Amino acid sequence: MTKRASAVSASPPRSRRRSKYTLAPLVLIAANVVLFSLFFVWPAVIGLVYSFTNYTGVGAFQYIGLDNYHNLFGDSTFYDALTRTLLYAVLFVPLNFGLSLLAANLVVNKHAKGASVARVVFFIPWLLSPIVVGVLWRWLFGENFGLVNYVIEQFGGSAVPWQSNADLSLIVVVMAASWAWTGFSMLLFIAAIKNVPVSYYEAASLDGAGPWRQFISITLPSIAPTSFIVILLNTINAMKEYPVFVALNNGGPGTSNNLLVQYIYETGFKRGQIGYASAASFVLMLILMAVAIIQLIVNRRVENR
Fold first, then answer.
1. How far apart are CA 100 and CA 104, in angstroms?
2. % of the chain surpassing 90 pLDDT
3. 3-state SS class at 59
């Protein structure tokens, strides 16, 4: 009895142990909240305030109401950048989705050899800096010094205007960005495909379903939540793309491939119109929020069917 009483008295109270278990998560969450508030919420609030002013980055500023937004929606250059951004997203998202899903299926295939090596090779481009990716693809598709044109000319063809043609230049950026982002999306698909129960495929095989039929009827429906995440992340990434364009063609030829982020950067930092650029940034944020909300609604409707 004495030993048991001493053991009970030595053990900490339950309330104290509960407080420890509660305090640790709160500390970890608090650190994330502070970082999120410092690097996202606070800059967003400042940008929203600046969007209603004529701030130039130096000195005082004056409140001008909705003038920046009124001028922005009357600016043809803004609409050109928005149109080119949407076109880039429409081209990039399906291409990256298809390449990453194909790579994931090849890697997880039980008949594939060297899957571990292939997984590393596919993932390496995502580890590279976007500036490095742009420079590499510029060396490949340069008009006067590019490897692709050199090979074409060696076979008797004529050099392709990869940089001076706006549409070809955009296609090169789409291919470069898709190559760089395939590894990240591939990992998400690999995890999703491996979580599909093997019994589904075994039952389908017994019913006579081939690989393609199994992919359409089993794999795609099973990885639908991951597909949604991949599409959402790629769409947001495409709408915010900047470094690959700058390194590969600098928005050229001329300004024909200037995207929204490049338009915001040049307006705010090169022309010194911080208030006007803040208004454009806030419009971009609203577009991204609208895209995310629409995709969430569509995904919920598909899941509820």
1. 6
2. 8
3. coil
